[in-house]
Amino acid sequence: MKLLEAVSLNKRYSAERGWFTHKAKSVQAVNNLSLSLEAGESLGLVGESGCGKSTLARILLGLEKPSSGRVLYRSTDYTDWSHSKMRMIRSNMQMVFQNSLASFNPLFTVEQIIGEPLRNYGAGKAENLREVVADTLDLVGLEQRHIRRYPHELSGGQQQRVGIARAIALRPELIVCDEPFSSLDVTLRKQMMDLLQELKHGLGLSYVFITHDLSVVSRLCDSVAVMYQGGIVEKQSGVHIMQQGSHPYTRTLLSSVPVQDPRLRKKV
C-alpha cells in the first residue's frame, strides 16, 4: 500500500516588485512533480542546492501548501488540512534536521527535547514519558547518563542521535531526513547510516532522504529520485543509480562523487 503520494505538485513563490520592474517575479520551486512511497521503503531525493528538495519536504510534511496538486497519506488527501487538523497524522510523520543543535531549545535537557513531541502529540505515551525517553535513548545508542545533559554538553554525533531519538519518540511511520550526515565526519556518518538502517528494520520505518550525495542514498535507499529545477528527471533503484544513471544531470552528479583513484572516475 502507498504510504505517501504526491500528485502533480507545483509550488510558486512570488517575489516583491522591484523599483524598476512593473511585474512581480515568481520562482517555481516545485514543478509538476509526482512521486510515491511504499510502506517500509526508503526514497532518496538527490539534487543540487536550490532544486526544490527542501520545499518538497515541507509540502510532504504539511508545513507548506502547494500552489497546485495533491498530497496523500495512506490514500487520505491532506493537502488543504489546517494546522489543527494536521495533528491527526502529525505523530506519524517526523523529521531529522541537518543541524540538530540548531533545532534544539538550548535550555532543554535531553529528556525534555525527546519528550517534547510526546507531550505535544503522544497522549497516553506522555503519562510514562520518562520510560519512553529512556527506551528511545537506548534505541539510538545513548546511555541513561545523557538524559540530564544539555545540547552544548554533547558531541556532534551525540547531538545527531538525540535528533533521531526525538524523531522516533512517537514511533512514526515516516521520517524525512534533511541532509542528516552533511555535518558529520566519515566515521560518524557511517555510524548514523548504520543506526538509521537498524531503526528502519526494528521499527518498520519509511524514510525520505534529502541530500546532494548519491553515494549516501545508493547505500541507504531502495529507490532514488533525481531532482532538477523543481522536477524529477530520473528515478531508479538505489543499487542501480550509481552504474546506470542515464540522464545528463544524473551523470553530472555522479561525476562529483569522490573516488579513491581519479583514474576510475567515469566521464560525464
Which terms would index this structure?
268 residues; alpha/beta; Rossmann fold; six-stranded mixed beta sheet; four-stranded antiparallel beta sheet; 10 helices; 10 strands; globular
Provide structural commentary.
- It is a single chain.
- The protein is an alpha/beta fold.
- It has two domains: 1-11 and 28-92 and 174-236, Rossmann fold (3-Layer(aba) Sandwich); 98-171, no CATH class.
- It has helices at residues 53-60, 83-90, 100-103, 110-121, 129-139, 156-168, 186-203, 214-220, 241-244, 248-255, and strands at residues 2-14, 26-38, 42-46, 68-73, 76-77, 93-96, 174-178, 206-211, 223-228, 231-237.
- The strands form two sheets. It has a six-stranded mixed β-sheet, sandwiched between helices. Strands 2-1-4-5 form a four-stranded antiparallel β-sheet, covered by helices on one side.
- Strand 9 (223-228) and strand 10 form a beta hairpin.
- The radius of gyration is 20 Å and the shape is globular.
- The two termini are 37 Å apart.
Give, in spatial order, the strands making up the sheet with the most strands. 6-7-8-3-9-10
The domain count comes to: 2
Shape: globular
What fold name goes in the CATH topology slot of the largest domain?
Rossmann fold
Number of helices: 10
CATH evolutionary superfamily of the largest domain: P-loop containing nucleotide triphosphate hydrolases
Major beta-sheet overview: 6 strands, mixed
Radius of gyration: 20 Å
Average pLDDT, to the nearest integer? 87
Q: Mind telling me the CATH class of the largest domain?
A: Alpha Beta
Keywords: ATP-binding, Nucleotide-binding, Transport
InterPro entries: AAA+_ATPase, ABC_transp_ATP-bind, ABC_transporter-like_ATP-bd, ABC_transporter-like_CS, P-loop_NTPase
Domain ABC transporter: 4-254
Organism: Paenibacillus borealis
